[in-house]
Every structure is written in C-alpha cells, then in structure tokens.
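// run 5 | inverse folding | seed 20
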C-alpha cells in the first residue's frame, strides 16, 4: 500500500517505485508468494514491476523443481528477480541464463575494497561487463565514497545503494522526507 502512495505522489515521467523483498530458498519453495504477491499487487492496481524479489545464489543451486516454477510464476506476473550479495556464493554463471535473472547486486565486500584492491576492482568490472552482455541490471551495494561511485559509473553500473546516498530509513521517515503524507 505504501508503494502505491509513493508512486501516486510522483510525476508521471518519474521512474516507478520498486520495493525489494529478500526471500530464502525455503520461502520460495514452501511459501505461496508466487500466488499471493501477484494477487496483492493486482488488488492495489500496481503492475508487477513495483516489486523485486531478491534471492541468494544458494536459491538457484537448490535442485527442487518448485523453486524454478515459483520464480517463473513471479516473473510472468512482471515481478523482478534479483540475485543479492552476488559474488560471495557459488556464482554459477549458467544459472543466470537458466533462471532469467533481471538484476544482481554486487556484494559490498567487493565495493568496499575496490579502490585499493586491484583484484576486487577487476571482479566488479567483470561482473558489470558480463551483466551488460546478458541484459541484467546491476546494483552496487555498500557505496560510501564518491570515488567508488565514479568508478562504477565508468564501468557502466546501473544503480548504487549505500550510505553515500542515505542510511536505512523507516518507511514513514522516507515518506516524510519526500513530502508524502500518510493516507494520500
């Protein structure tokens, strides 16, 4: 409901508000999010693109067929699927193609040290280049310095998140900062 209020407060040409939700492999396999979330978004009158389900690489390595089926159901409802903390797990590249991932988030451990660690810098650049070729959008986690941001822009990173932009905020505080009143 809050996403709808936030979206309504924006100008028509503004990018859509997107809420990201982390899911474990167990929640994907045994929960009914693949049924309930598309229905809830439809009830609110919001397209699926307003929700992004973030999963870990371990979820893709899980061989239960229902995980692939449930992720496919979410994607068919327009809901985005993103890999969280990319690069810290098994990073099985074939799964990026098999599961048609919409986005990935480069783990902050690579971003934190990329300015003074050539290896981390090379990994970040390679992840971004690979993602561009696959049509996957990239978010850099844990941005704290403008130099990190400049380097990521040079590499073609799509988005960044971290204290450089804002600390984590309660939804009501964010809304107040944006001039959005409750109930509007």
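// decoded
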């Amino acid at each position: 409901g809050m996403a709808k209020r936030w979206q309504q407060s924006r100008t028509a040409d503004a990018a859509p508000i997107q809420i990201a939700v982390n899911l474990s492999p167990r929640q994907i396999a045994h929960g009914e999010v693949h049924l309930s979330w598309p229905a809830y978004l439809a009830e609110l009158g919001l397209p699926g693109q307003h929700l992004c389900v973030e999963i870990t690489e371990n979820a893709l390595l899980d061989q239960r067929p229902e995980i692939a089926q449930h992720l496919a159901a979410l994607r068919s409802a327009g809901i985005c699927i993103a890999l969280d903390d990319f690069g810290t797990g098994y990073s099985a590249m074939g799964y990026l193609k098999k599961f048609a991932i919409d986005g990935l988030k480069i783990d902050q451990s690579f971003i934190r040290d990329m300015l003074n660690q050539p290896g981390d810098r090379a990994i970040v650049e390679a992840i971004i280049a690979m993602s561009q070729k696959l049509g996957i959008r990239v978010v850099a986690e844990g941005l704290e310095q403008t130099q990190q941001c400049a380097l990521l822009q040079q590499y073609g990173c799509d988005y960044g998140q971290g204290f450089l932009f804002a600390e984590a905020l309660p939804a009501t505080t964010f809304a107040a900062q944006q001039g959005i009143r409750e109930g509007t």
